[in-house]
Design brief:
7% of the residues lie in helices and 40% in strands. By secondary structure, it is mostly beta strands.
């Protein structure tokens, strides 16, 4: 497993070592010891989530506020997404900078999203299954978000505006 930092402080790409043969493939999707040794801090994942979506769905940009903030380890089990994160930590040197990466069942890449980041993704294939581990429980009263269409963020979601399927909640988040 290789872990490399992105241009955003504290955000990492995880490239598992995939063993393939005629039977299929195997890889270690998470190793607490290696993870903590590489990123330099401990994370205790306590909740796993899974979403299935079809092409054109755009989810996000979501975050949890205050003591309910969540770090996430995200990956795709089937299909593909464009995963997008925004550093929303006001004291960070990468504040309001974004990073995006295609995660797919084929490339097996994962992304570690630290606490204080806004997170979202656009679905690039029908029947995509997206999973993520969280280090804190979801709290409805602490949810927040950024409007994914905010021109200041300059995000190319890889889905045309007319093909985007967005929840009313996500459409109504404020612009910066």
């Amino acid at each position: 497993m290789q872990i490399e930092e992105t241009k955003l402080e504290g955000c990492f790409i995880i490239r598992p070592k995939v063993l393939e043969d005629s039977r299929g493939y195997f890889f270690e999707s998470f190793n607490q010891e290696l993870f903590e040794k590489t990123i330099g801090s401990s994370v205790n994942f306590i909740q796993d989530n899974e979403a299935m979506s079809n092409y054109g769905v755009v989810r996000g940009l979501h975050f949890q506020k205050g003591d309910c903030a969540q770090a996430k380890l995200v990956r795709v089990v089937r299909g593909s997404v464009l995963d997008v994160v925004i550093d929303y930590r006001k004291d960070s040197k990468t504040y309001l900078q974004s990073f995006s990466i295609e995660l797919s069942a084929e490339n097996h890449l994962q992304l570690f999203v630290p606490r204080g980041f806004a997170h979202g993704y656009s679905v690039l294939e029908d029947h995509t299954i997206f999973t993520y581990k969280c280090d804190n429980f979801y709290n409805k009263e602490s949810e927040g978000g950024l409007n994914l269409a905010d021109p200041k963020l300059q995000i190319d979601w890889k889905i045309s505006e007319e093909d985007r399927i967005i929840s009313e909640k996500d459409k109504n988040y404020s612009f910066l």
